[in-house]
Amino acid sequence: MILIKNGCVHNGCGGVAQSDILIDGGSIAQVGPGLSCPGAQVIDAEGCEVLPGFLNALSTWGILGPGWSGDDKSEESNPVTPQMNVAYAFDHDGMNFQRAYTYGVTAAGVAPEPKNVLAGQAGVYKTYGRSPYKMLVRERAAMIASTTDGVKKAYQKRGAAPMTRMGIFALLLEQLEKARAYDPVKNGYDAGCEAMQDVLCGRQPLFVNCAGKSQIEAVYAALTPYPAVVPVLTGAYGLADACTGGVEVRAVMGDHTQSFNPSRTLTEFEKTIPLMEAGAQIAIGCCGDDPAAGRESLLWNALLWHSHGLSAERALEAITSIPARILGVADRLGSIAPGMDADLSIWTANPFATYEARLTHVFLSGENALNKEAYQSCW
């Protein structure tokens, strides 16, 4: 048992209160003032801020490999590979090596890089642990697609389709139609069509990497004949001006800290922030054509949105409870409440208020990853 006392607790859903937190094993048992538990390890958090663990909605962490070598992030042999499953590429040592938890990130959506029209299936993993199966929170959490220049560049260099946006959408629609008509009894087993069935019925969201207004509008138009599909725009820099046709918007905003990313200039913060403050499911992320951002990038992006006027608690929600809902793991991650995984961080000050804030504890499933008994990577 661990009892965190007297902290200023931000629950990840907009609530802030002076409170205690009791951790039992890997879960949060109680949250409230004046808690006691004889025999528990007590952590005095007076004067400190307690936040939920951050969740990076889309990354290639754990499949990138150390030192930019040996990575398994992109299967570019065919532009349509929905049957690819990131679970077979995830390396717990690679994730531990990247030490994302040292910036408060306790979980991540790990996905194939969006270099294919349909790149495969993402999973949600903890950012610390010895076993990929114990770190796994949800397998097949999302299907990854892309309509951006990243796909065109991957196939232009070999003179193969798709080399244009027309080609990208033609292949996307072809696969959707093929999957809708799929009958394994009549046509035989097809791994790609089989993988698309959960997308077509809405059980698995379709994460579509897109940048500008015209790409976003084209995505919504292309998916109109498939009303059960749940699109999540990733990157989505031109979201504010796009016509969504009344569709409920779900998005993971792309990286704004990478100076070599030209798409970031498309974002109109003054138009997007009111949507976020009004409750739209818009997560802050650091994705895009190259979602291999560093461990600090998620918090830096959230701070950037805050500097443009997004309230601190809404910015926190956008890297905790909102991505958890989008990825279907809100029953375990993204907030501080009884029954949730004990994934949280303790800061000397509010990181949204001062750059002087420092982490003192980062708990993943009730274990402090910053202590001296942290698992050693072979690297």
Topology readout:
Layout: E1 2-10, E2 16-24, E3 27-32, E4 41-44, E5 49-52, E6 54-59, H1 92-98, E7 105-110, E8 118-126, H2 132-135, E9 136-146, H3 149-156, H4 165-180, H5 184-187, H6 191-200, E10 206-210, H7 213-223, E11 231-235, E12 250-254, H8 269-277, E13 281-287, H9 297-307, H10 312-317, H11 321-326, E14 344-347, E15 359-364, E16 367-368
Parallel strand pairs: 1-4, 1-5, 6-7, 9-10, 10-11, 11-12, 12-13
Antiparallel strand pairs: 1-2, 2-3, 5-14, 7-8, 8-9, 14-15, 15-16
Please, could you describe this protein's structure?
- There is one protein chain.
- This protein folds into two domains: 1-53 and 334-372, Urease, subunit C, domain 1 (Roll); 54-333, TIM Barrel (Alpha-Beta Barrel), CATH 3.20.20.
- The protein is built from eleven helices and 16 strands.
- It has helices at 92-98, 132-135, 149-156, 165-180, 184-187, 191-200, 213-223, 269-277, 297-307, 312-317, 321-326, and strands at residues 2-10, 16-24, 27-32, 41-44, 49-52, 54-59, 105-110, 118-126, 136-146, 206-210, 231-235, 250-254, 281-287, 344-347, 359-364, 367-368.
- The strands form two sheets. Strands 1, 2, 3, 4, 5, 14, 15 and 16 form an eight-stranded mixed β-sheet that branches. The protein has an eight-stranded mixed β-sheet with strand order 6-7-8-9-10-11-12-13.
